[in-house]
Amino acid sequence: MYRWCFDQMAEEEEHVVSLVDVLEEDEELEEEASAVLAASDAEHCSYSQGYVKRQALYACGTCCPPGGAAAGVCLACSYKCHEGHQLYELYTKRNFRCDCGNSKFKDLTCKLSPDKEEVNSGNKYSHNFFGLYCTCSRPYPDPRTRSDQMIQCVVCEDWLHGRHLGAEVPDSVELQEMICESCMKKNQFLWTYAAHMAGTAPPNQQNPVKPEVKPEVKPEVTAEADDEPSAKRLRLQGEPEGEEPKGVCRLKELQQIGRSRSQSGATFWPSGWRSRLCTCADCQKLVSEAGAPFLLDETDTVLAYETKGKTLERTNQSAADPLMSALDRLNRVQQLELIHEYNDLKTELKDFLQSFASEGKVVTPDDIRQFFEQQQSRKRRRANGQLYGP
């Protein structure tokens, strides 16, 4: 379950943390930041790309305060054009074109892409662009209320407090995407899929989730009386699994089964659920008229965007890593020797620091200096043929 970016952690009392804890937390924060930002360009305004499929966005409270027109700016413009301004982090939004410097900004011209149309008519805005979230329209973090996780709806892309979802938030990591109650009611066809795939019903009305079974289907699409909800589509008799017969609507198949659930509260969906939606011509028209064709696109997910960002970040880090650059200039024997030396040094440094941790001692600059002096001494002795000894 992705509680992207808006999880709030509160400690009840002070406690002592180790350096390892700090480093691990810092590494986790860096990884989260790279997942959100690495797939967006930090140097060039995204305006020339049109309505970008998904990108990191910000709203400027200084240039576009509440009561005025809502506007969003790309990552690069947040750095280059709005430094020192009050920025609202919007995480990511789909199909958005950068507004920076257009008619919504009275006293600012975009430094990166000054020639823009007055308005981006294809953009969609919400109260998020004024730093407000959820059905309660409160800021984040909210000084007036208790801390609560916030989860993003994959349809309207608003962030909602867990306590305002009208449903219990599942612990299962497999239930990765949430659709809020408002969006479910605007897209009634989703309730049919929810009865077979969504993992959580409103409190005290939760349907049991049982292991998937493969129903025996007759040539006329029916289901046995004791069928349990299945995440897979129903198959006609003799149809090879994995193939979708032409002219068969998966949504109508599920509707004929007649399985239902209470139509209230947010719904939570498992990984890959979008691939199980029907893509027949009628269903494509249905989701298009509902303004949600992205539901049929598995690459629209935030998970796909984050994965792309992490991959780009790792690639960039490898290219900038001095060790990797040095390895590229060496032959294979030299590469192996350098890697062994590096791993040995890392292991010895870890053991050295662990000895201080186990005894509760503080590591001083002199201790670190002494460690590396010992390493140099050992290296010289090895070079002179003295392979053993401290």
TrEMBL record:
Ranges annotated as UBR-type zinc finger: 43-115
GO cellular component: cytoplasm
Biased composition (Basic and acidic residues): 211-221
Domain of life of the native organism: Eukaryota
Gene3D superfamilies documented for this protein: Zinc/RING finger domain, C3HC4 (zinc finger)
Residue intervals of the UBR-type domain: 43-115
GO molecular function: ubiquitin protein ligase activity; zinc ion binding
Chain spans, region Disordered: 200-246
Key words of the record: Metal-binding, Zinc, Zinc-finger
Pfam families reported in the protein's UniProt record: zf-UBR
Protein name: Ubiquitin protein ligase E3 component n-recognin 7
Protein source organism: Neogobius melanostomus (round goby)
